[in-house]
Design goal:
Chain lengths: 279, 279, 279, 279
């Protein structure tokens, strides 16, 4: 059902596709779904291809690297259930949605652990026989708190760390340590309403649409590369509170969509943007 | 936060609103959110109003009824957590979504019980300390099976019965017995793809959008009054199977939306249609 | 087909609806579509009702005003084709869309004139036998230029002034002079990307959705009460230029939607927000 | 800005991409945007690639054909404004939208002529200095009428024939004659509401969403390969007539979107479906 995926990223030059596809053809592999994009500004080349056939991963990787420009990043990802670790605070909707999906084969991932700076979601996580770690930030500096969290993360082998409504700002050091692995859901249509209380901001502004944004986390608050966004229409009778309640549906849908894209290896980081091959 | 709601439905005639609002004013009540609609074809009058103030429900009801045309239906609904009972088969996404919402104050309802014709969702329901009833249809006629289900339903006091991906066709007798209380989620954008395997049908037709429809159940399969619908864009690379997986997100979102409208007493049945005051 | 509309806005108090509806009932009028909203923060009451029956407008207005709190604003709007005047700069898409709609009974309005600070759209406007006024801003101060425009506007009797991609900032004096009559279309999902070159800003940020916003114009740039917004999904391959081209479809659709709401007297200004009765 | 495009369609086999990309590399061409898809059921291979560099079209075509399986279809499309011919009946919204777009560089096409079975849109077409042909169907059999239309079409060299709300059913012979060149806009979300009066059907059914579908025309009414679809939410207060008016906005937007995809050579017909590379 699911095929192995090759992801390649490098500076563009003529003949890259010919080199790659010839190499794969000589290895007797079939390319069944293939997309390339060259950023016309950065002149960066991105490729995602699904392959069929029998192969030795290391041999393929080695032969591809030999044909690519220096500094090329090549990945060959075999189909497997990826491991994700969740950071949460108090809200249950994104966490609950991911627990249901992952425990019922609706998302191709395993939740290896949940870390929270509060204890209120422990009951929910326990129901799904998933390790829950309470890491309070009380009386700790940001560095001390993140050290605790990092230590817990270090116990697990995980592909992605998902901020499923984790309401603490992360230090630059932390975001750098897990660069490219941290995916956040922000409860607004970025770049509108950066920061705290976006639904209150939306209410005050009288917008007719609210949204949510899932993005990679970088050191700049709410400014990392965007993976997915969506919106819903709202009306004058919504209060800030009812906006926040309604918005939960968009938040969990957008986070799940972004995660699925990442879990299927469809997402490249391109500077402060993403390239997404969803075809 | 939530106000009492008055719902009125009757044949239209001049002065209805004057009579109602004068009556409520004399009872010292304030109308804070009020919507009326007259169906220009059926000449039927629909009204939903939220009231503020102190009152004796029975007195209000009696005095309103005295001012309305014969045959008028008046309801005065006090704010309370409504009780819902779920019928499911094997799929977890709608059930799981409702379990999370109802256990975390994201939906103003209590799930009093879950009935299934299979046993596979028992584990999930057990996690939430909710009664699960396995009512197999094996070796039973439709009538016999529905008798079992009705008997279980009879043990509970419930406001709505939600077919949260219950994959059996219901008899006319059953739909009549619970008329106006049965809400279904159908996995297509009705009236496209009535009946079985709508995602297979959608795949064969090559549509660029799939959808879901939540409706009241009547004896005519998939033809009851529609409460909510939504859609998502899909592409040529989707298989029937991946359409079905993607569609689960729309199904659970549409069902939750329809349920919220019903739980907030915003929905009237108007022949084979609905009138929805979502303002 | 279209009924007379009564719009009322005043401070909330008990009995308003009873007073209004009794008054209308005594005038032998039927209310066929009626919506009320009380802003829970400002305690402001808004009502829109469609009436059927025979009446003397002035008598009705007078009797309603007598029953309402001091300072109430009451309007009784008889069905008629409203007059709109357009301000444009160089882009044809919104202008063309409105010209087609208004000349083919798709929008219930007459375009009485088009004013532009450039001459390039004259050909298009001439095709539709509509007065075109070229009012260059060359060598004029903002005040001088707006004086020219005001003078032209003064020659026409118009209900609304539509900034259909008019790319000049208006002075506070100008916005105050036409307060409540100026409707703008901004080429972003406000409050994201205020000001110039929103598509360039959207491209730089790497958003996955672009949008448009139609709002009343106030002295604060892009901060007036929002009437309508919509969005569309975009992808990594879009350049700033192709975003701008794609966005034109949203711009013209959102502007038309906002205008239709205003032309049907469904919009109230509520401080910096709008109340819209679209039911 | 716009690059030449190569479209290839053939039975899938290993090495196709290697062969094609090697051939193009040897011709010193750069592939800047490249997408491939293999239909897992039909085992059909589809490829669209944008190329940069200097080349002799015939040489490239010949060398590509030599490397592809027998029966492969290869096209090399140089950037140019394509020619479209419109068939219309009485409604102005799609026609007007296309006239504005094509005359203001918002769509990369030239409208070479408009044919109508009524005379009422002549005025609008004349404004844009476009040939208008009145071809009445009065007193003619379907064959005779289509003969007249075919004769007019024959006078023009056109890439696509667009049924921009042409309300006559076409014969099988006619659809076969212009196979792959006929694009229709149907005023419903197909396959819901096939045939006449879809808005009346939608009203009767009480749907909460209406839509439009643009598709290639085949001999089976409303059953050709779908290119684009979209929808909008509607409410209980809509009449069949107001649904039809609101739906015009979706119709023209969906038709323009489908046309743009076709004009940019992004659409392949795959049996009764389409493959669309919109990346």
């Amino acid at each position: 059902m699911i095929n192995p995926v090759i992801k390649i990223e490098c500076d563009d030059q003529k003949g890259i596709i010919a080199n790659i596809s010839t190499e794969l053809f000589q290895a007797d592999l079939n390319l069944v779904n293939n997309q390339e994009f060259v950023d016309p500004v950065s002149k960066r080349f991105f490729m995602r291809t699904e392959i069929e056939g029998e192969f030795q991963p290391e041999t393929i990787l080695k032969s591809l690297e030999a044909k690519l420009p220096e500094g090329a990043a090549v990945e060959l990802i075999l189909p497997r259930k990826k491991k994700i670790l969740l950071l949460v605070t108090k809200e249950a909707h994104c966490l609950g949605d991911l627990l249901i999906r992952c425990s019922h084969d609706e998302m191709n991932a395993e939740i290896v652990a949940v870390i929270s700076n509060h204890n209120s979601l422990k009951d929910l996580v326990d129901k799904f026989n998933t390790p829950f770690h309470f890491a309070s930030h009380q009386d700790l500096s940001r560095e001390e708190h993140e050290k605790v969290i990092s230590e817990i993360i270090g116990r697990y082998d995980c592909d992605l760390i998902v901020l499923a409504k984790y309401m603490r700002i992360l230090s630059e050091a932390f975001t750098l340590k897990y660069k490219g692995k941290l995916i956040n859901i922000h409860h607004s249509f970025l770049p509108a309403f950066v920061g705290a209380n976006p639904y209150r901001q939306a209410y005050e502004r009288g917008v007719k649409i609210i949204g949510a944004t899932s993005h990679f986390v970088t050191s700049a608050l709410d400014e990392g590369p965007i993976i997915a966004q969506d919106v819903m229409h709202v009306e004058h009778h919504h209060s800030a509170k009812s906006l926040a309640l309604a918005g939960k549906d968009i938040e969990k849908a957008v986070l799940a969509r972004a995660l699925n894209l990442a879990l299927e290896d469809r997402v490249f980081i391109n500077g402060n943007k993403t390239v997404i091959f969803d075809g």
